[in-house]
Design a protein that fits this description.
Layout: H1 7-15, E1 21-23, E2 26-28, E3 35-40, E4 45-51, H2 55-68, H3 74-77, H4 80-96, H5 98-109, H6 113-118, H7 120-134, E5 153-161, E6 164-168, H8 174-188, E7 191-195, H9 202-214, E8 221-223, H10 228-236, E9 242-246, H11 249-259, E10 265-269, E11 275-278, H12 284-296, E12 308-312, H13 313-329, H14 348-363, E13 367-370, E14 384-387, H15 394-397, E15 404-410, H16 417-420, E16 425-426, E17 428-432, H17 436-445, E18 450-453, E19 468-469, E20 472-473, H18 482-485, E21 486-494
Parallel strand pairs: 6-7, 6-9, 7-8, 9-10, 11-12, 11-17, 12-15, 14-15, 17-18
Antiparallel strand pairs: 1-2, 3-4, 5-21, 10-20, 13-14, 16-19
Helix pairs in contact: 2-10, 4-7, 4-9, 7-8, 12-13
The chain binds nicotinamide-adenine-dinucleotide.
Residues 168-172, 195, 197-198, 227-228, 231-232, 235, 246-248, 251, 254-255, 269-271, 303, 353, 399, 401 line the site of nicotinamide-adenine-dinucleotide.
């Protein structure tokens, strides 16, 4: 295998990372001195040793973030335009380091280098560029009062930063998730402590370095690498004003409990089991490619993965065979091989989890196309399609977070949408049809935060993203994200 990046370059990029915690603008060891190893899921080899932050480090980081949020601190006094320029510079620096970031994402997460280069990294840069514009556009309203003489009082609102944030992110899009979290915080004028996932801490370290180069004052962005214990300490910390979490629904519920101590604001972006409805009148080439992309992109490790595929009976065999054909054409391999189109799963734990769901589907009577382990090193599982499924099967109900789709037919005279909506989740959904009225009617009835029509996995910094039901609270991206990071203050002045 010829690697897309030379071994010496890999050693240079990984070796340039501090492996420490970023607290108050300095790279420091954890209080305990402990570290943990980050593994390459394609080879199971150790990539780097990283500081293992825990409660004491979180406390230090929160204190730094609080000091940076003080009324007289540089960050609070800085003109909003300058704040925006720092963010824009950070976006530029991410693009300047596109190759390093793509390399780190591929090594740490397993995803193809080529995909990280055209998706994860440019989208992360775009988040900072887009959000930088908002730094100068945070406005309140002047509101005519309803029950008093209009000359008696002047009522207006100010939008003010919520304060010190705690942000906990997962491993599936390490850099992009960090950008989704940090960029709006900076635009809003808050300060933050970021806790990357223990499986994929490396790109956050480079991002922290570049944030300082861009001119972010010390303490505005702090990064505490470590396990769930660090996340739990952040969610429970009495001096954190707001916690934002992306990850499993199970941990999301823990966050809500931990946040109750000081009633910190909470937003959650959690799991999904997204339904994909293909009607017989769809452009089938588009529907097949879209349905395969919906579930196989990023090894299926996507919260919006289209993991329940409902196809109108008359085209069911054709669509399932088409998706199976796409699955067979996927080139599984080391993410640094330029020919690879799907990498390994992120960890041994995730490998066991996905394998467990495949076994459970089989035990419950589903037929599995694909789904075999590939090779004996690295966490590779071939993409899989489950047919002959029933709605009560565990593999159909629960989030698998791997390249596994459960397919089922529906008849032309039935209404599939109650079944499509029959899930505790409501993150993403999709519909394929040539009939525009049917598409819009379906999009309106699907209970999900994002509905794709004749496409899937299209995201944009300007478009809000988040979940209905147990898929979360609040929205990320777009201007909707500022509801998470701004307080509204009402000022009433007596004009007499
Ligand atoms: P997770 O929810 O356990 O971890 C996500 C983040 O939360 C990590 O940074 C982790 O260290 C931290 N964390 C863990 N326990 C915590 C706690 N008690 N308090 C605060 N923070 C805590 O997710 P996982 O174990 O990495 O993956 C498990 C499943 O979660 C996946 O199989 C998938 O179903 C789901 N998941 C969803 C997303 C998403 O984008 N919605 C992303 C990754 C994983």
């Amino acid at each position: 295998m010829t690697l897309a990046v030379e071994e010496s370059r890999i050693a240079e990029v990984v070796g340039s990372l501090s492996g420490k915690l970023l607290i108050n603008g300095e790279w420091v060891d954890s209080a305990s001195g402990q570290t943990f190893e980050s593994l390459n899921p394609a080879t199971e080899e150790v990539l780097a040793s990283v500081a293992r932050g825990a409660a004491e480090d979180v406390d230090r980081a929160v204190r730094a973030a609080r000091a940076a949020f003080a009324d007289d601190a540089v960050w609070r006094r800085m003109p909003h335009g300058q704040r925006g320029r720092i963010m824009h510079t950070l976006g530029d620096l991410i693009l300047d380091h596109l190759e390093e970031f793509a390399l780190l994402e591929s090594l740490d997460n397993g995803k193809p280098f080529t995909v990280a280069k055209i998706a994860d990294v440019p989208l992360a840069a775009d988040l900072f560029h887009y959000m930088s514009g908002w730094a100068t556009k945070i406005e309140g309203n002047t509101i005519p009062m309803s029950a008093s003489d209009q000359d008696a009082y002047l009522g207006f609102t100010l939008r003010e930063p919520v304060g010190v944030c705690g942000q906990i992110i997962p491993w599936n899009f390490p850099l992009l998730m960090a950008a989704w979290k940090i960029a709006p915080v900076l635009a809003a004028g808050c300060t933050t402590v970021l806790k990357p996932a223990e499986q994929t801490p490396l790109s956050a370290l480079l991002l922290g370095e570049l944030a300082m180069q861009a001119g972010l004052p010390p303490g505005v962005l702090n990064i505490v690498t470590g396990y769930g214990e660090a996340g739990a300490a952040l969610a429970a910390h009495p001096d954190v004003d707001k916690v934002a979490f992306t990850g499993s629904t199970e941990v999301g519920k823990e966050i809500v409990k931990a946040a109750a101590g000081n009633l910190k604001k909470v937003t959650l972006e959690l799991g999904g089991k997204s339904p994909n409805v293909v009607y017989a009148d769809a452009d089938l080439d588009k529907a097949i490619a879209g349905s395969a992309n919906a579930i196989f992109f990023n090894q299926g490790e996507c919260c919006v993965a289209g993991s329940r595929l409902y196809v109108e009976e008359s085209v069911y065999d054709q669509v399932v065979e088409g998706v199976a054909e796409q699955a067979r054409s996927i080139k599984l391999g080391n993410g640094l091989d330029p020919a690879t189109t799907m990498g390994p799963l992120v960890s041994a734990e995730q490998f066991e989890r996905v394998s467990g769901y495949l076994s459970s589907g089989k035990d419950d009577g589903a037929h599995i196309i694909g789904g075999d382990r590939v090779g004996d090193r690295g966490y590779f599982i071939a993409p899989a399609i489950l047919t002959g499924t029933r709605e009560d099967m565990k593999a159909v109900r629960e989030e698998i977070f791997g390249p596994v789709v459960a397919a089922a037919p529906f008849s032309a005279d039935s209404d599939i949408l109650p079944t499509a909506n029959n899930s505790p989740y409501g993150l993403g959904a999709g519909v394929f049809t040539r009939d525009i009225s049917k598409a819009i009617r379906t999009a309106k009835r699907l209970r999900a935060g994002t509905v794709w029509v004749n496409t899937w996995n299209v995201f944009d910094a300007a478009l809000p993203f988040g979940g209905y039901k147990e898929s979360g609270w609040g929205r990320e991206m777009g201007h909707a994200v500022f509801n998470n990071y701004l307080e509204t203050k009402t000022v009433i002045t007596d004009l007499s």
